[in-house]
Description:
Blueprint: H1 2-5, H2 11-21, H3 32-48, H4 56-77
Amino acid sequence: RHIHRNYRLYPGNYVAYDMLNEVKRFTGQYTQEDYRKFESYIEKQLDKIDLPNKDIPFLRERILTMYANPLVNYLSAQ
């Protein structure tokens, strides 16, 4: 818990949480530019995945979860 409470969170963590959960809970923690850049970054990461018949929605959800988890852990430690 102590580690989670001391996480340094970045705009991407907040954007990922909001995107993953389809909410606007943390819009005060990032700008529209942060959102746009993170969305573009995620698209570029997905483009790098070279798999036959890749499941884009599943892969997007996995990547967003990875970036949102530090915030989820921080919130659960409060």
